[in-house]
Design a protein that fits this description.
The chain is of the alpha/beta class and about 130 residues long. The chain is built from 4 helices and 4 strands; from the N terminus they run βαβααββα. Helix content is about 35%, strand content about 15%. Strand 1, helix 1 and strand 2 form a beta-alpha-beta unit. The longest helix is centred in the C-terminal third of the chain and has 22 residues.
Length: about 130
């Protein structure tokens, strides 16, 4: 069986989708291919998201926001959107989930921790389903 592939999409690809990708890489190792992208990528990853992940020993400092491409969607088995609405392309035969999560942009660490923890529990469930 081929390795499943997951694409996380949010508007800026700087917070939620980067944390989700970091958790999936951490929890699934090389058993799942991980991608993330944004419909309007930011210049850099949200430093508070980086700090929140570092608290759990997950380093996402090397990641950069990437623009969402149709190729990334087509190459993924599961597409998880986080507040990007109609900007996300839809292809038949893909599994789509829309995770309702607060945007960590402009928020402090105290506000980002619960978002991070919500993402972690969703990722743990996703790993159980895919591997």
């Amino acid at each position: 069986m081929t390795k499943p592939s997951v694409l996380f999409v949010c508007v800026h690809n700087a917070g939620r989708s980067q944390m989700a990708a970091g958790f999936l890489r951490h929890l699934a190792g090389d058993r799942i291919e991980v991608r993330s992208a944004g419909s309007m990528p930011a210049d850099q990853i949200n430093p508070v998201a980086v700090e929140a992940m570092a608290e759990l020993g997950i380093d996402i400092t090397a990641e950069t926001p990437k623009v969402l491409t149709t190729e990334a969607v087509q190459a993924s088995d599961v597409v998880i959107t986080m507040g990007c609405g109609d900007a996300c392309p839809f292809y038949p035969g893909k599994r789509y989930e829309d995770w309702k999560l607060d945007d960590p942009a402009g928020q402090g660490l105290e506000a980002v921790r619960p978002i991070r923890d919500d993402i972690r529990s969703r990722i743990a469930q996703l790993v159980d389903e895919l591997v």
